[in-house]
Amino acid sequence: MTPHPHRIIARLALAAVALGTSALVPVVLSTAARAASNPGFVLYSAQGYDHAAVSAFNATHPGFTVTLNDNSTGPLLQQIQAEGNNPKWGALWVDGATAFAALDTQGMLEKHIAPSDGFNALGKANIPADGSYVPTGVTVVGALCYNSAAVKPSQLPSTWAQLSEAKYNGQLGMNDPSQSGPTYPMIAGVMSQLGHYTSGSTAKAVAAGKAYFTALAKNGLLVSATNGPTIGAMEQGSINMAIVQSSACYGAEINGSFPSIRVKYLNYSIALPGCFGIDAKAPKVVRQDAAKFLAWLLTPKGQHVMQTGDPQGDSLYWPVLNGIQPANKVIPPLSSTHAVTINPYVWGPLESGINTWFDKNILSAAA
Predict the structure, then answer these.
(1) Model-level pTM?
(2) Which of 6, 50, 193, 347 has the fewest CB atoms within 10 Å, i.e. the most exposed one?
(3) How buried is 107 (Cβ within 10 angstroms: 0-12 exposed, 13-18 middle, 19+ buried)?
(4) CB 76 within 8 A of CB 83
(5) How far is the CA of 183 from the CAs of 225, 230, 240, 327, in angstroms?
(6) In the chain, what are the domains?
């Protein structure tokens, strides 16, 4: 699809010069004036239900327009960094708190945007102290999807350590963290767990994780860009297992395109909140409009659109609001996933460096 990178379209205003002459000169409007003349904002999003949400909101809220720039998370984050001090985004809506923590540490996110009530325990656990981003739903990453027609449950590993054993050579796939937003939080979660970050050090955790993914690469790890190609490789028989996002696995099972796909959770998975943040450098009217859209997402009507907008994909999340239930019975209790939460403010600033290392050492080795 064609992205819409411009939040505000500059307009030329004509003003008559003094003394009653008929000459007209162009006047370039200021940023604030452009925002007032063309109310709304550009939403950078990688959510499967973002088209449905934006369309539903625009149809019922005529006061301003939300314009969607839909892309994978990696390219969106690269676009935000490239825009620098001339941002064109009004809000960001993607999976993974690490990206938002990194933006927050750079002073790029509006603070205290989270509503004061309405969140269940899962939602409250995923709101940072400064309220610089807000969870709208939670999936997990690191779910072990497998082809039940090719491998029996008894043949599967039960732990991440077992997953790296030689007997699984050539059977495993995953996504590229530079393209797939959920993948870096998974890598960071594995590093954190293997390095016992809570009782050790970040450097120790990173080193342990690099050694682990290097072992997977030596075992013939297949790395694809995003969920679709990775699951497609499993369906085609190139691999039998993949460590990806839970909603992608459940979606392939529900839509019937891959009836033999199943999900197993190892000794841990990584909680993956879908988050919403607002550009702190945007004009006030843009920030206000983005806050109104966020408030609508957190209503029953907004949640209904999210849960029906991508019913075979991102809609398969665990709700973060009181009174909202999962959209499909295929979604198990969150406790069954053994989900752990990483500190996004520790791992967010490391994302660029770790992704660069992964693409240089793991992606190239798996190619």
Answers:
(1) 0.83
(2) 6
(3) exposed
(4) no
(5) 10, 12, 19, 23
(6) 12-138+274-327 (3.40.190.10), 139-271+337-366 (3.40.190.10)
